[in-house]
Amino acid sequence: MKYFIQIYGCQMNYSDAERVAAILEKSGSEKTSKESEADLVVFVACAVRESAVARLYGNGKKFKRYRLDNPNFKAILTGCVVKKDQEKLGKIFDVIIDIKHINELPAKLGLEAKETEKEFDYFQIKPEHESPFTAYVPIMTGCNNFCSYCIVPYTRGREYSRPTQEVLNEITELVRQGYKEIILLGQNVNSYRPDEATDFPALLERINGIEGDFWIRFLTSHPKDMSEKLIKTVSESPKGTNHIHLALQSGNNDILKKMNRKYTKEHFLMLAETIRENIPDVMLTTDIIVGFPGETEEQFQETAELMRMAKFDIAYINKYSPRAGTASFEMLDDVSWEEKKRREDTLNAVLRETALENNQRYIGRTVEVLIEREDKKNYFGKTKSFKDIKIKKNETDKSTVGAFAKVKVTKVTPWALEGVIMDDD
Ligand code: SAH
Ligand code: SF4
Ligand code: F3S
Description:
Bound molecules: S-adenosyl-L-homocysteine, iron/sulfur cluster, FE3-S4 cluster
Largest sheet: 5 strands, parallel
Number of strands: 18
Strand content: 15-25%
Number of domains: 3
CATH architecture of the largest domain: Alpha-Beta Horseshoe
CATH topology of the largest domain: pyruvate-formate lyase- activating enzyme
Structural class: alpha/beta
Radius of gyration: 22 Å
Helix content: 25-40%
Distance between the termini: 51 Å
Strand order of the largest sheet: 2-1-3-4-5
Shape: globular
CATH superfamily of the largest domain: tm_1862 like domain
CATH class of the largest domain: Alpha Beta
Number of helices: 13
């Protein structure tokens, strides 16, 4: 059997897909990069926007054709899907399975799993990592925050934190195998609380204690749980990186309140300042929603203003999409699509300016880079602060993909840096 995985949504889904792959490999299936060649097509879906769900329905005809050509063909749906959509999507997909029960997939397909996985806890499935040097490690899943627009608490359920020892063992093994970049994942990593005595800063400290040469990243942090203690811990961590993703969503206090975000714009600005003071050359990234119900031009302008002040490096600007079942679904979606688009474009223009201004400070400086891929003339990688960088090769350098390098920045754009390798000695 050949399988193909189609992934939508956030890093959590990319990480989950590595567990799906592991389960299918164990039952003797083989990966293909061509959907049309696959016997098993697995969709790891995202439900954050209505359009993402609508897109799933668009696969019905294609799957029908695959079934006619291949009697073994099966379409499988997992990831973030709400109950209501599951019922309807059952007409298109052969199997719909909760990601937490993915270990039951082979049995559902009538395949034999070579190893019987432990019941329920899917985090114990050893993933088939896509990369030999960067690994996603989920530390928690689910969400208790119920922001009024957001479907995630309904697709992923309540917060669950993995036991610290389990996380430490997984990372120790990855580092032993040579992994250089560990990306801790969770809907709100800073609510990590597996037991009374452990919080996220405590986990970071223990990961820092693992021997080896590697970077620690984490995504995402909620502003209401971003403590000074966490900022200090990151700044003092030798393996910590200078990138913080902190979702702002809106720069207007009334909208923030209607969003149920539980912080003010003043608090957000204070956090951004504290982060910049403590973590040198930090890269600050964010998520924004434009056109939330009732958002006026003035309220929107406050978001633009806050973006200018916070000087983000990357901002993912999302047009508000009403999701049935969430609290804001009951509010009138009164900002037109065209107006949402205009606000999105305006914020992207602000971002372009702040990002370029931030990047210009890099010119002439030497930064640490993890090289991710190469072509004949260049390496491509990420700086410790998570910026894309293109590096010109020269005849003498001995750099390799998957290794760290010191790079002198020679040129910048709003979205990327360019540089040359510096010799170590
Ligand atoms: N837990 C993370 C966000 C996870 S969802 C946090 O709070 O930071 C990722 C992003 O999708 C959100 O930050 C938000 O900007 C966007 N999003 C969520 N629901 C949305 C909706 N209904 N319409 C538009 N964007 C949405
Ligand atoms: Fe959604 Fe809010 Fe939870 Fe983030 S914190 S996943 S936006 S409910
Ligand atoms: Fe989408 Fe689920 Fe992530 S709804 S954004 S894939 S947590």
